[in-house]
Write a structure and sequence with these properties.
The complex is a heterodimer of chains A (492) and B (178).
Chain A lengths: L7 H10 L8 H53 L23 H7 L16 E2 L5 E7 L4 E6 L5 E6 L5 E6 L5 E6 L8 H6 L19 E2 L4 H4 L2 E5 L6 E4 L2 E3 L14 E19 L5 H10 E16 L4 E30 L5 E34 L2 E18 L1 E3 L6 E3 L3 E2 L5 E2 L7 E12 L4 E12 L10 E17 L2
Chain B lengths: L2 H9 L3 H22 L3 H18 L9 H19 L27 H10 L2 H13 L3 H8 L3 H26 L1
Helix pairs in contact in B: 1-2, 2-3, 2-4, 3-4, 4-6, 6-8, 7-8
The chains are: A alpha+beta (492), B mainly alpha (178).
Chain lengths: 492, 178
């Protein structure tokens, strides 16, 4: 501000008006308080919007990744790229029935089984499965894993130890193939695949043709008798007769759609909830606004346990129990209080006190607890190290509980959430069971090993019914979004 | 409660502290609002809007001066924003300004603040803002021109016109008193 010759008129107005104090403006406070509260809610909604956007992006990213992966796979197959990866997630089933009796092996000695020989010859191996995996371990604990796809086509021979192994196969097409492996890693190489007989077209890579019978003959069973034959990783293995195997399981290959299995999930989901309060009649609009202004979101979460049955087609059926909780902060005027302001001098000594009477604002935490049984149908896709899943269904509320208080309808007092009203005084304001909710989730689950997956599942839940009863003048509804983090255990 | 504690509480969203800050500043800030508004209702709206901004932006208060001065600036800025929204193109500077009448202002010390406020309120918005910024707040014409996005000449002419209107009103009020 510049030095200047001050006009007398300016001086007069400055002297009279610059430090003008018009005193208490108490009547304006409530409007400001309401506006602050509204801004808080609007910020919450913005936050909610961002959260939704993040979840949506996450979901779209997963979908895009999935589609891109599928597209690339199709392209590779069309180009004749026969690279097939086999999971390292194999697990040995250490069950006695998974071992073929040495006698049985001996029965194979010197035989040459052919398709024609089946089923008469007991020295055929019948494998009713999309993928077969047999591990031969010799006395020196060296092992070879051989994996098969449908139609009897051998796709891979996977050497698990430093070993050189030669074997001839004949497939159902009568073709013979011979190859050797001298690798030490579970990596399938292009040349191995290309060298294998029976790969005639791309369909051979698809595993959606169940119960394809396979006749395998091992012209060199002399080698086998020296070894302990183990079927690895697969379930439901049954030895029907001498060397008659039936495998009804799948390979945990990163590329292959899993077959039937059971999962158990344990999860925790931090959530954000959006509340909607609607006045049922015009006369309670102010009350609805008062409640909206006084109560604000504080936090939400849920946790639960869930069992899933997943078919070989990837169709998943899930159910369990979910414990949800929403916390809200309730701020209300609770009488008057006197504020004492101590005025200090420059040395910090108190020189004066000022007392102001203001509205006393009390705070309370309101908690809404929901106990639900979700019933979901989903679809799972096994891609590389991840399992993508989409789930949707209904949640059936078992019980809803309330802790805390709200303003009464006339706004004059604070009442408990479990209060009753009505002529007989027996009508509750909030339901103890709020019925059905729509539940949906998208999972991007990471395979930790053959049995455990790390869950990361964005989810949403919308309660179809208000949590308030018909007798209450307001409708109160909730919509929740969150990300379930947890573990999935694949039972088999 | 010390002012720093009140500020901290306000930043943390403590409504009790916000109420206390309101009680501390509302009277003085209402005085500022009244000068920049045409009536009490507009002043109250301005005060409410300004307090929301104060609470929202309190984190940016550097504590390098009195909080009241910082809050005043918020009110002035809010008022200027309103000024920009209004159409005041018709209030163009006049090239043939009338000479100011001479008045003995020392004799006007007895005028009440509400009389002066009323005079300021009656000014056209453009005059009112420029007069307040220049005469009461002490801004220069250059600063006012930048703030209001007008020419310095416009600021000068609006100030002169504002003074003339005010002087006329004062003269009238003196006659009435006499």
């Amino acid at each position: 501000m510049n030095n200047r010759n001050e006009h007398e008129l300016d001086k007069l107005f400055r002297k009279k008006l610059k430090s003008l104090d018009l005193g208490s403006q108490e009547h304006l406070w409530q409007g400001i308080a309401d506006q602050i509260s509204q801004n808080k809610r609007s910020n919450r909604f913005i936050g909610f919007g961002w959260f939704s956007a993040i979840l949506l992006s996450f979901t779209l990213f997963g979908l895009g990744l999935n589609l891109a992966y599928k597209y690339k796979t199709e392209q590779d197959l069309n180009k004749g790229n026969k690279m097939v990866s086999i999971s390292e997630n194999y697990t040995n089933i250490e069950s006695s029935e998974n071992y073929i009796e040495k006698n049985s092996v001996e029965a194979l000695k010197g035989t040459k089984a052919t398709e024609a020989a089946y089923p008469k010859a007991s020295n055929n191996i019948e494998i009713n499965s999309n993928i077969k995996s047999i591990d031969y371990k010799d006395n020196n604990s060296r092992g070879v894993t051989e994996s098969y796809l449908n139609r009897g086509n051998i796709l891979n021979s996977n050497v698990k130890a430093q070993n050189s192994y030669n074997r001839k196969f004949s497939n159902e097409n009568g073709k013979n193939d011979e190859f050797s492996n001298t690798r030490s890693k579970d990596i399938i190489q292009q040349k191995d695949i290309n060298n294998l007989a029976g790969i005639e077209n791309n369909e051979n890579y698809k595993i959606d043709i169940p119960s394809q019978k396979l006749d395998l003959s091992y012209p060199e069973f002399e080698d086998l008798e020296k070894k302990e034959l183990t079927v690895i990783k697969q379930n439901n293995l049954r030895i029907k007769s001498n060397l008659h195997l039936e495998l009804n399981d799948y390979c945990l290959s990163k590329n292959f759609t899993p077959l039937d299995h059971f999962d158990i999930d344990v999860y925790y989901s931090p959530e954000i909830s959006h509340r909607n309060i609607i006045a049922k009649r015009e006369s309670v609009v102010n009350y609805a606004q008062k409640r909206s202004g006084a109560e604000s979101f504080a936090g939400a979460s849920s946790f639960g346990i869930r069992a899933s049955y997943v078919t070989k087609n990837g169709l998943a059926f899930r159910t369990g129990i979910n414990f949800g909780s929403i916390s809200e902060k309730f701020e209300y005027f609770d009488g008057k209080e006197t504020l004492t302001k101590v005025i200090y001098d420059s040395k910090g000594n108190p020189i004066d006190t000022q007392k102001t009477i203001i509205d006393k604002i009390a705070r309370q935490k309101n908690v809404y607890k929901f106990y639900d049984i979700p019933a979901l149908i989903g679809y799972e896709m096994d891609i590389s190290d991840f399992v993508f899943s989409f789930n949707a269904g209904l949640g059936m509320n078992l019980r809803t509980k309330y802790y805390g208080s709200i303003y009464s309808e006339d706004g004059s007092k604070v009442i408990n959430l479990n209060s009753t009203q009505g002529e007989n005084g027996d009508s509750r304001l909030f339901k103890s069971n709020i019925g059905l909710s729509i539940v949906a989730s998208f999972g991007l689950n990471y395979k930790l090993n053959g049995h455990f997956l790390l869950l990361a599942e964005p989810n949403l839940r919308y309660y179809l019914n208000p949590i308030t009863t018909d007798t209450y003048s307001l409708e109160q509804r909730y919509f929740q979004m969150g990300i379930s983090i947890g573990l999935r255990y694949r039972i088999y | 409660m010390q002012i720093n504690d009140i500020i901290k509480g306000c930043i943390g969203g403590d409504i009790l502290c916000q109420k206390e800050l309101f009680d501390l500043l509302a009277g003085k800030l209402m005085g500022v609002c009244m000068r920049y508004s045409k009536d009490k209702m507009e002043a109250e709206d301005l005060l409410q809007d300004s307090f929301i901004k104060i609470f929202t932006n309190l984190e940016s208060f550097k504590n390098d001066g009195p909080l009241e001065a910082w809050a005043r600036r918020i009110i002035i800025n809010t008022s200027i924003k309103k000024y920009h929204k209004m159409s005041y193109q018709n209030e163009s500077p006049s090239s043939d300004l009338m000479p100011e009448k001479t008045t003995d202002f020392s004799a006007l010390d007895g005028l009440l603040y509400n009389e002066l406020l009323e005079m300021v309120n009656d000014l056209p918005q453009g005059y009112r803002v420029v007069f307040n910024l220049y005469a009461v707040e002490g801004y220069s014409h250059k600063e006012i021109a930048e703030l209001l996005n007008i020419k310095e000449a416009t600021s000068r002419s609006q100030l002169v016109k504002a003074r003339m209107v005010l002087q006329e009103k004062i003269t009238k009020s003196q006659k009435i008193v006499i």
